């Protein structure tokens, strides 16, 4: 997944703007790389300082994401606390800060409604308010989170984390943009201070004009002013906003201003119960699920969605954070997936939400000088202090302030910069991106990503067939063999001699065989001085996701001092001016043996 994709999951931060100088220790002065686990405690003072700062970001984010997910605000904070106590020991990454995920909020909200409706029946559900359905469904969605966590842990043992590479980047970015739109639309009730009857994207938009006439003026003014403040502060080039991002300032300033100016009624404010870490906890209700077969289909579907999105976002985030780590450590994707699984199961047992690494908090951790996952622990301890001693102040914060923060997050996921980035890569990527968005907001996340993958499959097959026809390859096998060929290892030869590692690609490169490419690139001999990548004539198409991945590894090996040569790369013609554009390079003339090989393999 591209850096642009990662940056759009932030809340005002662009990780690409953060350099090593932002950390309290530069790479040149580092002696030894900090380790996780108990050895990491030797760096406790750095992680303590950073953890306290990160908690200022975690508090509003966690509560806002919880509300968007249809859960009580305290449940989001519980998730961050659970992550803080487990991750320093479970490991997987090094400087990521984990907690509830904005990307999963729409799925959780829909899942709660779906499970509640499945249990009580559609007729009964139609007569209940959204708040009542959320109350009924939340203990059931905790069961889904617990099961998803267990399955994540099991899948990690089978080293499946890298399977996420087969998802096209354009489809993933389309999914994230759709999530951003869903997040924004879901904030309308809080922004207006009214209750909506609709639960789905288009229905909420249709109901919005009627609800605007019923809006609470003070609540709406608070929400709109905080939203405007977020965009203004984000545009200002002050370094202070990189250390403590605009949402934190708006959370504090918006709450104070709203109460002094409008005197917002407590019913429109956050409501944290007394002794929140005890009274706010809920337990997953396995009994209700077991004795209600009508919920099983909705439960299984939600579990699948949670695993897919959790894994995809988690792995994308750790890749982005690894690039910012001044110690240049590399996270273990499978260990990270296992850690997230353990955290999710533990979080659900005490009423918390799903947990994934967050790019904003992780970036703030690096800037603040955090060195290990123990920063998560100190973040959790600070959150406990906030919740225990600052409940009265937190309960003065209007929900409209949290809505403004979530609208800002959603905009970062689906704003014009994202569309411009995708359109610059190529019209075929924009098509996949747009179709994924439309299907996702109209149905759900799983169907949306499935449609995006299918469309990308058709595009790749069409490009390969076109390249084959230009090269005079007819392909004697049928559609099914052609389809299966997409998933075969494109590396036809690998050699290592005298410090030179040579890999020869003799098939088209695309997201559906990218897993093989990643494995080959990660298996390059440690003593390699020169890495030579050969693009044979039969390797006639390289899709956007593969171009992105190859260039990523080229840069990574160059940073290690390895000379990289791309033999045959010049024959490819990019389909746009973007560096990551699809490369189209049909061979003008194949040898007789190459033609025979291509015909027998179906051209792929």
From TrEMBL:
The keyword Transcription regulation does not apply. Keywords: Membrane, Transmembrane, Transmembrane helix. Residues 1-31, 593-604 have a biased composition (Polar residues). It is found in: Membrane. Signal peptide: none annotated. Pfam families: Sulfate_transp (PF00916). One of its GO terms (cellular component) is membrane. It is a multi-pass membrane protein. Its main location: membrane. GO terms for biological process: transmembrane transport. Residues 1-32, 584-604 are annotated as: Disordered. PANTHER family: SULFATE TRANSPORTER. This is Bicarbonate transporter BicA. Residues 47-433 form the SLC26A/SulP transporter domain. The lineage of its organism: Bacteria, Pseudomonadati, Planctomycetota, Planctomycetia, Planctomycetales. The chain crosses the membrane at residues 74-95, 101-121, 133-154, 166-185, 218-236, 248-268, 289-309, 373-390, 397-413, 433-459.
